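Q&A FORM
Asked by: J.P.
Topic: structure of tRNA-uridine aminocarboxypropyltransferase 1

PROVIDED:
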Amino acid sequence: MSLNSPIFLKRSEENNSKFVETKQSQTTSIASEDPLQNLCLASQEVLQKAQQSGRSKCLRCGGSRMFYCYTCYVPVENVPIEQIPLVKLPLKIDIIKHPNETDGKSTAIHAKLLAPEFVNIYTYPCIPEYEEKDHEVALIFPGPQSISIKDISFHLQKRIQNNVRGKNDDPDKPSFKRKRTEEQQFCDLNDSKCKGTPLKKIIFIDSTWNQTNKIFTDERLQGLLQVELKTRKTCFWRHQKGKPDTFLSTIEAIYYFLVDYHTDILKEKYRGQYDNLLFFYSFMYQLIKNAKCSGDKETAKLTH
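REPLIED BY: S.T.
REPLY: Here is the structure written out as tokens.
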């Protein structure tokens, strides 16, 4: 269900920025213990109050939820929507969710809540058609054919060139005309005129790692450019048994991709523009961390 209601769309970047609080720098040893502490986040006071008051009603479906409704993709009654930050992204994001993925445990919903105009969630086997736009779409998934983020522009530009060459490959045309057409429409991949990227959309698979193969091998995703993230450790509290701590949650993967995209592709200094994608995630992380330290099992249960 879409979150693009009139009241939601009234939230602007100005409303978002007034909440932003730049964190003080911490020592390296402390940072390693709490990797989410230096984020530039909106005030989480609204979540603190909601956590204290307990579950609340979803104004759309009437379900009892904590913080937000994972069915309708909206904050619940005791979390005013105007107090939730709105994040502007440089790309569109499609999330393909496995049907067996438990809605209440999925962090993909965080992206839809915080960047509703840029994020769409589809439940497999529902997948959009990407074949005609494979030169501007990338699938974020590790594998032997995966490339690094910094190489995205190069590989997508090659696809554009190959597509144009195919269209212009008319045997009835004189070779010099074909050559001239190519020169007009192609640019040197190393030419400064080709700076930027044709990338417009990225795709993430939302499921446990044991379930990803069913979606990843779907023919509708075959042939897309695959991109692998840099190795980072997850903070996710629902660790998948037998999997390394470098297997990220969906919202972590989205966040880290955008940070690297900002620096490696856009060539701009990162100043926390996407940190609020971790608005719910960082709060839940700290909540559960504190609950484990105090032995408060009931508090941990509140996060779905």
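FOLLOW-UP: Residues 44-303 form one domain.
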